[in-house]
Design a protein that fits this description.
The protein is α+β, with helices and mostly antiparallel strands. Helix content is 48%, strand content 18%. The chain has one domain: Sufe protein. Chain: A (Alpha-Beta Complex), CATH 3.90.1010. Strands 1-2-3 form a three-stranded antiparallel sheet, covered by helices on one side. α1 packs across α2, α2 packs parallel to α4 and α3 packs antiparallel against α4. It binds zinc ion (ZN). Zinc ion binds next to α2. Zinc ion (ZN) binds next to α2.
Amino acid sequence: MDLKDLYRDVIVDHNKNPRNFGRLEPADLHADGHNPLCGDQLSVTVNMAGDRIADIRFDGSGCAISVASASLMTEAVRGKTLTEFASLHARVHELLTQHDSSIDPVSLGKLGALSGVREFPARVKCASLCWHTLQAALQHETNAISTE
Ligand code: ZN
């Protein structure tokens, strides 16, 4: 099986059986995201332990790419600090948007499966919606910390 087949299987699997699907109640942080170009809608709930993402869930409805991307993201960011999240987000953003990216998809583990999306510019927003939504949720945390 070559890498392309493997990546396709990862996307299909995470779309059919999304991980961490649902809602944390109560949740420390929450944000909703909407991609009007495709109709994808996601909600992300997060519980923090200090500056670490202790738990995360997502729900909503959307295309296969948006759901698989959110599922992969929740697995990748659980246990990460805000700084680690920011660094991972930057690398995924580059992987999704830059054709000449020097980032090796394999170095991102399963998230590398999203590398095929950059061949389809209309789908980039589907794949990045969950990341922007989580970023928005975490931004509230940063604001809360800075005003204390
Ligand atoms: Zn979509």
